[in-house]
Design a protein that fits this description.
single chain, about 100 residues, alpha+beta, Rossmann fold, 4-stranded antiparallel β-sheet, 3 helices, 4 strands, about 25% helix, globular, binds adenosine-5'-triphosphate, binds magnesium ion
């Protein structure tokens, strides 16, 4: 599996992630759907260690996001593309131009 979410737990003022556990295979397209405020963005942010988890770990390409130390986390962040929800695509540009802009 290219990404493996293992038993993720996170509460802010109330529980958000409660034992989330699944993996995504290389080449697989995987969508997460659900009502607003249910933890989709919190989950995705754990992929590159942007959330301090209460429990659990994520592995990307065999490396631990939360247990591998800063060098491993840096390697993972070089490999993973992440678009924040509030900085979405420019609708005046096509897909190629949006991607190109991110690489500039
Ligand atoms: N850094 C944070 N500090 C405190 N609470 C947070 C933080 N980040 C997220 N939350 C809370 O966690 C919950 C889940 O938020 P999240 O942004 O993951 O929802 P979402 O499923 O992505 O919603 P949407 O569909 O609107 O994007 C919400 O109650 C949100 O207020
Ligand atoms: Mg979101």
């Amino acid at each position: 599996m290219i990404i493996r979410y293992r038993d993720l737990w996170k509460a802010f003022d109330h529980p958000i992630l409660a034992g989330v556990d699944f993996g995504v295979n290389e080449g697989e397209m995987f969508g997460v759907f659900g009502p607003s405020g249910t933890g989709k963005s919190v989950l995705l942010k754990t992929t590159i260690g942007l959330i301090d988890l209460d429990r659990g770990d994520v592995e990307v390409d065999g490396e631990s996001v939360y247990g591998g130390g800063p060098r491993a986390l840096q390697r993972i962040r070089y490999k993973v593309g992440y678009v924040f929800q509030n900085s979405a695509l420019f609708d005046s540009l096509n897909v190629y131009e949006n991607v190109e802009m991110g690489m500039a």
